[in-house]
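The data layer described in this paper is built around a simple, fixed record for each protein. We quote a single record here, exactly as it is kept in our systems:
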Amino acid sequence: MSNTIRKPCGEGVHFGTTVGAALRPTGLLATLALAALTAPPARAATYDVGPGQPLAAVGDVPWESLAPGDEVRIHWRAEPYREKLVVAVQATEAQPVVIRGIPNESGELPVLDGQSATTRAALNFWNENRSVIKIGGSNTPDCDQPDCVPSWITLESLDVRSARPPYSFTSSRGGGSYADNAAAIHIEVGRNITIRSCRIHDSGNGLF
């Protein structure tokens, strides 16, 4: 059974928690805290994917080294991107990681299709048979709870589809078939995850 989730522009599905307690620094700690607050943010990278862009394929993006503030812009093309990926980075509210689809002039969304999809060779993560896009733990990049929880990640304006049997995929660890309960987008673990203006369908689960 396939599920479709549509959200109009400006609305989204948000998964978030607030954890922590306020501490009042004094002396040297206060100085260090002030320096951290006033330090300029690291320069973020923008990766443009698609026809006429610097990167031709989704797998050309260095997903294993994404950093807070980075943005991936996947431009529409007539053929689907038959590629899978994992997003495993601890970003921040001030510097989120954004993966944004760029529609064509008619408003058609770029498609990430799980059927016969491939995964970038540098990526290594478990539960590959569960999704087209996974947000959660991985070996490469090195991110696993409790030390690393993917945070402040936004997916928007993407058509993600076809994570279900009998479709199959290929990764650096060989081939495989999707599980019956595979999802277009699988949030294994995360904090402050936003999914906005996406179409997710033709999968065991739309969103899991």
Summary: Confidence is low (pLDDT under 50) at residues 1-11, 17-38. The longest helix spans residues 27-38. DSSP finds one helix and 16 strands in the chain.
